[in-house]
Every structure is written in structure tokens, then in C-alpha cells.
Amino acid sequence: MDHEGDANRTDLMTITRFVLNEQSKYAESRGDFTILISHIVLGCKFVCSSVNKAGLAKILGLAGDTNVQGEEQKKLDVISNEVFVKALISSGRTCLLVSEENEDAIIVPPAQRGKYIVVFDPLDGSSNIDCGDTNNVSIEDALQPGSSLIAAGYCMYGSSCTFVLSTGNGVNGFTLDPSLGEFILTHPNIKIPKKGKIYSVNEGNAKNWDEPTTKYVESCKFPQDGSSPKSLRYIGSMVADIHRTLLYGGIFMYPADKKNPNGKLRVLYEVFPMSYLMEQAGGQAFTGKQRALDLVPEKIHDRSPIFLGSYDEIEQMKELYAESKANGA
């Protein structure tokens, strides 16, 4: 046995150790945020285990209900939602929860209430966190611009389980080591390339796109500057598409179109967390009208168009929208 190798494993940077190190940078910190993150991580581990056992446990069938978005819920969606709601409330550090799967926001009972607002999509795994007033909690407390966020992240389940997190000091990726039951830092200080060679969009909606989006995709396929065409990669899962974009650069697009004039992705728990991560990694996030994190939602399930990715790609998209506006399109 390689006892020396095993001993070295105790010096790994776990996500708990990482967050504790970040906490030590703030003299006023009392550890509440670290406790909250540890409960979110526990939820991710539980869902990861459920995803891996889904076939055997026969929990991939439909639960026979629809969520507030009108999408048919699967059993795994329901389980994931329950896991995160319970984990967040039991942390004793939250006051208000907004989930994609619940029509109404969940106000945490006073006895278990803390100062953080958490908005999340339980199965896609994206979550983001903000501070709130613990005494008088209302749904309106969640309707803040994305620039008010203090942290965002997502967990990607599959053959390996990856947790990507930003607490406002860059973006870091952690991979679950099943033998230790710990998330280990594997992608420190993720920086998105300034330009990219991949574009990610559902081209099945092309006939309904606006002019700037159509022109941008045309330039990806038939560049006029003599460069090679960009490659199309579209998985259809926002978390997976954004994860690839963060690591390799390019652009992810879910524009407004004739069918969805307000866009399709939800502002609080899809647009905001991914925009926060993208900016923290050196990229940009744009709605077609403004910086995504400057949006102020009016309802907890509001939607928005979104363009996320490498700095230069989003600059090109901004120019196309400015040009279109100037031409009165």
C-alpha cells in the first residue's frame, strides 16, 4: 500500500476548507455563510447519489404533477426540491427560499430563520444567495438586481459530480471524490478565454430570432474576416452548456424570439447565477438591452433573454444590437 500517497490526500483543498479560508479574509464574519454552503453541498451530495441510483430506485418516472412553469415534474425533480428545501431550512441561516418548483416563495419559520435569501433550480443545480432582513421577510426581498448577489454556483451531475462556486473572488470548480465523500478543488480560478470558437444556441428556433441574433449566428458560420467558422455545441441543459463555455470560451445564447418575446430562462435562478459566474470568470452577460445583473425582476418567476460568454463575443453581440436599434429595427 502507498501509505505516503494516502497521507498526502489529507492536504487536499476541500470545498469546506476553501470556504473557511475565504471566510477568514473578513474580520466581521461569524461563520453563517460557511454553514449555509455546507448545507447546500450536502444537498448536492444527496442529489448526486439519487441521480446515480435513479434507474435502480425507479424514480425516473413522472410524479403526475406539473410545476409552476407548466412543465411535467419527474420524481427526481420532486426529490431534489425537497432535499434542498429541507437542507436550507435546517441550516438555520436562511429566511426566504425561491425554487423553480414552487409557485410561491417559502418564508422560513422564525425559529429557524437566518439572514440569507436563497433562490435555486433544484435539479439543474444552480443556486444563488443574497442577504435579507430576518425580522420582516417578504417575497419582495428576493426581487433585487443580480448585482446584489454575494455568491452563486451550480452542481453538475453525471459520471463525475462537479460543484462550481463563486463567492465574489473569482470562480472555482470542485469535483466529488466518492471515496472520501468530499468535493476537492480541481479547477482553481477559472478564467473564460477572451474569445471563443464555440457557439451554443437552439437553432430550431432560428426562424423566430431577431435580426442581431440571426446576424451573429451567420457570422459564426460564415465569418467575413477569413477566420475559421465556429463550432455549434448545444446540449439543451443550461448548466452543461455554461460549464463548457466557462472552460473553453465562446457564447451561450437564449434570445427573445417571436414565440417568447420576454425570453424563456428565469431571471432569479437561471440568468442571475450564471451571469454572476460568467462575470467573475472574466466574461460578460447581456440581455439584448442591458447588463444582465442590472435587471430588477418584478416577480419571482420572471424571464429574460440572455447572452453569456467570452468578453469579445458579447461585445460583438452588443454592437449588433446597437446597430439594429440605430437602424430602427
Chain-wise SSE layout:
Elements: H1 3-8, H2 15-23, H3 32-57, E1 62-66, E2 72-74, H4 75-90, E3 94-99, E4 106-107, E5 113-121, E6 126-131, E7 151-156, E8 162-166, E9 172-177, E10 182-187, E11 198-200, H5 211-221, E12 231-232, H6 238-248, E13 251-254, E14 265-266, H7 267-280, E15 284-286, E16 303-304, E17 306-309, H8 311-326
Parallel strand pairs: 3-5, 11-12, 11-13
Antiparallel strand pairs: 1-2, 3-4, 5-6, 6-7, 7-8, 8-9, 9-10, 13-17, 14-16, 15-17
Helix pairs in contact: 2-3, 3-4, 5-8
What does this structure look like?
Its cofactor is Mg(2+). Pathway: Carbohydrate biosynthesis. This protein is of the alpha+beta class. It has 2 domains: 15-190, Fructose-1,6-Bisphosphatase, Chain A, domain 1 (2-Layer Sandwich), CATH 3.30.540.10; 198-328, D-Maltodextrin-Binding Protein, domain 2, CATH 3.40.190. Helix content is 33%, strand content 22%. The protein contains 8 helices and 17 strands. It has helices at residues 3-8, 15-23, 32-57, 75-90, 211-221, 238-248, 267-280, 311-326; strands at residues 62-66, 72-74, 94-99, 106-107, 113-121, 126-131, 151-156, 162-166, 172-177, 182-187, 198-200, 231-232, 251-254, 265-266, 284-286, 303-304, 306-309. The chain has an 8-stranded mixed sheet with strand order 4-3-5-6-7-8-9-10, with helices on both faces. Strand 11 (198-200), helix 5 and strand 12 form a beta-alpha-beta unit. Helix 5 (211-221) packs across helix 8. The longest helix is centred in the N-terminal third of the chain and has 26 residues, at 32-57.
